[in-house]
UniProtKB/TrEMBL annotation:
Key words of the record: Hydrolase
EC number(s) given by UniProt: 3.5.1.6
Enzyme class, broadest EC rank: hydrolase
The name this protein goes by in its record: Beta-alanine synthase domain protein
Species name: Mycobacteroides abscessus MAB_030201_1075
InterPro entries given in the database record: C-N_Hydrolase_sf
Gene that encodes the chain: pydC
């Protein structure tokens, strides 16, 4: 799947284990990251209470 959720080639087997290798369009990855910007507003310094055992 590409970063937008579209299939970009053959789909693996539904019954057998497989390794599927695909080339990625890195310009599309960059574009989607720029559009959504999930990581821009991350605040890892506030994760402590959430991830503490």
């Amino acid at each position: 799947m590409d970063p937008r959720g579209n299939y970009v080639g053959e789909i693996g087997s539904a019954t057998d284990e497989e390794i599927v290798i695909r080339d990625l369009d890195l310009s599309l990855v960059r574009q989607v990251r720029d559009d959504w910007q999930f990581y821009r507003d991350r605040r890892p310094d506030t994760y402590g209470p959430i991830i503490a055992p």
